[in-house]
Amino acid sequence: MFVTVRRPYRQLTPEAVRAVMGRACDRAGLERRGAHRLRHALATEMLRAGASLPEVGQVLRHRSQLSTSLYAKVDQDADPHPAEAR
Question: Please, is 59 exposed, middle or buried when counting C-beta atoms within 10 Å of its C-beta (0-12, 13-18, 19+)?
Fold first, then answer.
C-alpha cells in the first residue's frame, strides 16, 4: 500500500510508515496516530458511504473475511438517518 516515491520503487518498512504518519500528525498539530488508525478511518468512512464489507475488505487487502467482519459493528452502529437526509 505504501511505496517509495523514488526509484527503485519498493514497499516502505513498517518503521518508515510510522515515521511518515508521525511527522504528518506533528505538522497538522494532531496527536500522533499510526497507520492502523488511518486504515480504520478509511474502512469506517467507506461503510458510512454505503460500501459493503466485501468491498472494504478488498480495499484493505484483507486475506480473510473474518478480519473485515470486525467492521460490521461500525456498520451496525452507523446512524441510519444522517443529518443530511433529515
Answer: middle
